[in-house]
Amino acid sequence: MKATFYEGQHTFSVAEKELQTPAKGEVRIKVAYCGVCGTDVHIYHGMMDKRVQIPVTIGHEMSGEIDAIGAEVSGYAIGDKVVVRPLDHRAEQPSDKGFSHICKDLKFIGIDSPGAMQQYWNVPAFTLHKLPTETDLQLAALVEPLSVACHDVRLSGLQAGEVAVVLGGGPIGMLVALVAKNAGAKVFISEVNPTRIQLAEEMGFTVVNPAKTDLVEHIKAQTEGFMADVVFEVAGVQPTLDVMTEVAGIRGRIVMVAIHGQAKPVDLFKFFWKELKLIGARVYEPEDYEKAIELITKNELPFSSLITAIQPLTNIQQVFENIDKNPDGMKVLLDCQN
Amino acid sequence: MKATFYEGQHTFSVAEKELQTPAKGEVRIKVAYCGVCGTDVHIYHGMMDKRVQIPVTIGHEMSGEIDAIGAEVSGYAIGDKVVVRPLDHRAEQPSDKGFSHICKDLKFIGIDSPGAMQQYWNVPAFTLHKLPTETDLQLAALVEPLSVACHDVRLSGLQAGEVAVVLGGGPIGMLVALVAKNAGAKVFISEVNPTRIQLAEEMGFTVVNPAKTDLVEHIKAQTEGFMADVVFEVAGVQPTLDVMTEVAGIRGRIVMVAIHGQAKPVDLFKFFWKELKLIGARVYEPEDYEKAIELITKNELPFSSLITAIQPLTNIQQVFENIDKNPDGMKVLLDCQN
Fold first, then answer.
1. Nearest by CB to B280, which of A225, A241, A271?
2. Structural domain of B77
3. Which of A149, A185, A316, B94 is the most buried (most CB within 10 A)?
4. A245 and A121 share a domain?
5. Cα separations (Å) of A115 from A58, B144, B302?
6. pTM for this structure?
7. B80 shares its domain with B156
8. Where does the pLDDT of residue A327 fall: very low under 50, low under 70, confident under 90, or very high at 90 and above?
């Protein structure tokens, strides 16, 4: 089998590797597709060299089929289509209060242990979610990021008829917007990148370019002063932090999806004044995976528009180099089947 | 009747004024006691000269009895003990979504219109809450700030058995701590002022002085690593903003009680990582007043310990000067009866 390895220094290798028999409690998956996540790009940029164990196979946005089954695994058969929820919560403690998806000693599979950018992947069976037989395996590589979006929208408490503003139209922002729209919200996307604006508009969204249009005034006019019920901060930059508290209406909920590496100024007065809520949201819980699988399997939303390119696994080096050259792109999948 | 007036320039006057017949929909209250709020001190300091209409009678933390009743007021009789919920929401709009207590065009009675630091006070009947006949009118002057605390605790969703950390042991912090403890929480107060520490300890609270003890390590040890379920940020300073995200456990809720006049650095990464919630809370709703009246009337909590002094209304100038000289004090009441 072929496997890829991040070697440090912006470099991936591709090597032949022996197929491994799945250990007790594990299955071996024949990986179909694996998407490139922003975190994977961070790893490629060397930003996580202290955390990953170089050389390491990365990747966690995948789909595949069960190829072999280890001892003490029940409920799965060879050939089952699956996706992996890449959270290893086996070190969970009582003080995690049952929130295993964000437990203090959580290990992220594909970062802290080997990932899916290889032809075959051995994983613990507790990470699996079964896909219906009719699910498209290309689209199923979007289940993991889509689950993030499902989690964000679920924690926001979004109700049909509410107004949602998504700050940032990258892959996660687009998925959040799709899930919010599917839940019956009136969705606005705020994005400055022309290529992403065009894509979002093609997908049927109302997009505001805050560099050209006053976002707050626009939302005010479009909502008769009600402003946003829910704001998703996905962009992770100071201008979106500044606007998130402006664009939210009374008792608005702001979901913090973006990762802010350092403390940043927030208008806390507006939280007090309008009784806003800030809701931190990280990864997903099992029900978010089930919701994402349902949406992907139904395939009624324009998920395929988010797939910018599909490249052979062995092109991994070029794929990551191209992502750096083309920051407008959305989701690139590695085809791990050949 | 005697009335007091803020005249600007750190100056109050006391003057005789004609009793006014209550207008339609209003009652006249014979004011018993009126507490001095931090906002009143801000006004005295000239911080709100642009908002108040000098000369103005301020004050909103009051108790009293109905003295006269205007046309079209029902359900009240002369002699009824009452407190006023000083929110005039008559300019409420649909886009306020029914949250009248924080509606965009809210007028605060005692700031935007005359307040209670006078012997008789005419107010709209919709602001009234009736007190039981047995309620102590001195303690009842605490109903307004206690309602703030009831609102904060209610919005936090605090459950019996949870751990609450109150950052700041001033009057509102102490009331929040009392309400949280009464709701069955294990309460810690973080405070640096020795006088306030002593008072809080006399009231039965566990107090941590973060200038001497590492608050985060202390809470960690005391909670077996669970940390706080709910944090109340009442102090309004950068160190409490820095610690609030540290001291909160997984899915902890942080209630923003303090008023932060400008944007300040917040560790948003911790909101993401631990899925924290920040909950803005402002003033109160009718049910918070009812809860506060119930607590004050039962008088099972050490409310009287929070009353630092009771001074005649005519001493108002000296009262405000003394508050500036003695920042350790808690609540000073003006006796408006003579």
1. A271
2. 2-136+299-335
3. A149
4. no
5. 4, 58, 59
6. 0.97
7. no
8. confident
